[in-house]
Every structure is written in C-alpha cells, then in structure tokens.
Amino acid sequence: MKLQCVVIALVCLIPAGFAQAPKPGVVGFRGKSHEPAQLPADVGSAAKLCVSTWAPWAKSHGYRLDLDPSRRVLLISAKSNVDAPLGLVLKTIALFDSLFPSAVITPAAETGVGASTAKHSSAAPDDVIPEDPESPPPGAPKTLPPEREETPSTVKKSASFRPDSETAVMFVLKNSADYTATLDQIASLHPYLAEWKAAALSQIGFALEAPLCGAYNEASPSQEEWSPDNELVHRTMALLVLRRFNAQPYWLHTGLCWYAEMAVMKSIYCMPYRDGFVSDGEHGGWILELNSIYSKREKDPLRLPELLLKRGKWDDKISKTALGMVDYMSKANPRALGGLLEELRRFADQNGRQTNADGTWTRIRDYEVPEDQQKLLLERYYGARLLSDVIAFWTGGAIEPGK
C-alpha cells in the first residue's frame, strides 16, 4: 500500500499535457519544453551534461528527450506520447526509493559548497527512517579490509565514486538501425567500449555503468515473445542500482531488476542469455516455484553456488533463487539491503583492480566479489542463519513481489 502511494505521488508530478511536448531534440521537464541550451537552473549540471551530449543525436534521429522530475533519468525515445514510458520510469524510481531510502550525496557543484552534503531522499514522507538504518546487526564482525589511500601516482584517473551524482540516460530505440547508431555514438565517445560494442550489437539491449546509460531495441529481430515495458523497468532499475551502488555481484544486480519487473509489471520477461521458446506460464510464479525446488531442505541450508548466477548462460533454478533471495532480504530487513550493497561496492572498489607494471591500475571487467566474502557480508547484515531462514521462508508460503 505504501509503495502504491509513493507511485501515485510521483506520477502526479507529471503535469497534464506533458505528452504534447517536446519536439525531437527538445527537452521535456516538469510539463514544459526547453531548448537544450536553455534549461532552467534547477535541472542541475549532471542532467545538463547528458542533454548536451545527446540532444544533437536525438534531433538528427527524430528522438525526444524527457527528464524525470527528480532529474535521475533522462528518457530518450521516439514516442509521440511519453506518458506511459515515463510513468514506468517513475514507478521504478518509487520502488527503488522504497528499497533504498538512504542518504543521497549531493555533488558539491550542485550545492555550491566545498564538500558533498547528505540529505534523505525517501519518496515516502510518512516512512520514518531510524538513525543509521543500514548498519549491520549488533555485534556483527568487521569483515572489510581498511580503506586504501590512493594517490595520483597509483591511478590512471580519478577513481572516486559519488553515489547519485549522475543522471542516467535510458534509450527506447524504435529500430535496429537506431540501436546500432546509438552503439556507434557511445563507442565514439568512449573508445574503450569498441570491443564491447561488437558483442552488444547482437543483444536486444544493455545497461552500462560508465557511461551511465541503458537501451533496448523495440524492433529486435531476435525476439519472438517479449515485453518492451518490462525491458524499460528492468533496465531502469539496473541503472538506478549502478547510479547509487556501482557494479554489484551479478546475481544481486539482476535479482533486483527481476524484483522490479515483478513488483511493477507483475511478470518477468527479461531473461539474459536464454534462447528458445518461453511459455506464458514462465513469466510469473518464480517465488512460488521455490517452494517445490527447495522442499525437504529444512535441515540443509542454501549453498552459495545455488545463488550465484554466471554471465553467459541461463540457469532457471539459480535465476529463481536470485530473485527469491532479493525478495526475502527486502522483507526480512529492508533497511539492511542498502548497507549490504554499499559494503559490496567498497570491497569491489578496493579489490577489483589490476595493477600494471608502471604502477597504474585498471578495473577488472565483470569482477565478482569472492564467494566467501559474499557469504560473510550476507550473514553480517542478515544474520548467521540467513541461508537456513530463507529456505524456511520459501517453503512456508512466500508470495510474489507486488502481490
């Protein structure tokens, strides 16, 4: 009920008639149209940078730009009426805020002060957040190594990550030609993605952390049965997680995106690396199926390999388990979820680096926090009995998210 109130509140921020503007290359923001060079001051520097980067491309390809009222997502689409897709973006933002109502770091450039300041950004004003809501349970062991001191001589470029400091760009592309053109433009702006682009051409879409952008092709020739609305929700959630917590373990990041699909759309259609026919019945009931998958396991806790998804292949059982774990954590201790993701981010930031001969370092692509460290952090935030408790939850009447 609380999430429903949050969604209604956010959707009401879109004034009537919003869908009538803007034209290609023009920006819609809070019910008004603006030329890219004439955006109001309250749009902020992060959103202005996205607009200045992509407005020329959008205009030349016939796409409009619409900035959500909170300035977190810039939606680029060819829709004549943007109310429906922008509404899904707002519902996904509301869900994200219900899961992660933590402090937002405001960039110094936005506040005019020398250091970042924190402010609460909960979409539910009646949701009182206790002091330090994302700390681990009392008496939990410290599991992270000390923070490293980085100097300019040891890094190629600034490695600082400021949560919530960027505006994510979400492309809804009308055909394969525009999907390819988007990939070409991204690779031209970021040459290190040239190799990635070759693989992305064969996919229906993507979500990137640097640059913070996502896309999907509405006319992908490889899709026999799919839902563009689910794609939008799934990839918007992916970008919001990256925006606040950077890269996360694959199972956790994808599980959060499936959780969003189920909560907002009441179905799941985005199934990475899955080929072949998907029946109607496979788009729902994932949590309910865990009852039978893990029946008679009361004395046999969940094992981490049963949870850890692998990139490049589809595993039906592990996929359902990943969604089930996210669903359980969101119910068992929702305020701990953000703390868990933040500690995973810090560990990956410190350890997911490859040191070069000259003393510089680069990020390890698709780095995964080691299994034992994931287990330590999961139990730190959700208790030593987590892997047993989640089995009892699944076999004791768990229901789908959003029900």
What brief labels describe this structure?
two-stranded antiparallel sheet; single chain; 7-stranded mixed beta sheet; disordered N terminus; alpha/beta
Structure write-up:
Helix 1 crosses helix 3. The chain is globular and about 60 Å long. The chain is 41% helix and 11% strand. The chain has a seven-stranded mixed β-sheet, with helices on both faces. The chain has a two-stranded antiparallel ribbon with strand order 5-6. The protein is built from 13 helices and eleven strands. It has 403 residues and is α/β, with parallel strands linked by helices.
The main pleated sheet reads as: 7 strands, mixed
Strand order of the largest sheet: 2-1-3-4-7-9-8
Secondary structure class reads alpha/beta
What's the helix-strand series? HEEHEEHEHEEHHEEHHHHHEEHH
Mean pLDDT, all residues: 82
The portion of residues assigned to helices is: 40-55%
Q: Number of DSSP helices?
A: 13
Which runs of at least 5 residues are low in confidence (pLDDT < 50)? 1-9, 13-21, 104-158
Separation of termini? 10 Å
From the alpha carbons, calculate the radius of gyration and give it in angstroms.
21 Å
**How many strands in all?**
11
Name the shape in a single word: globular
Beta-strand portion reads 5-15%
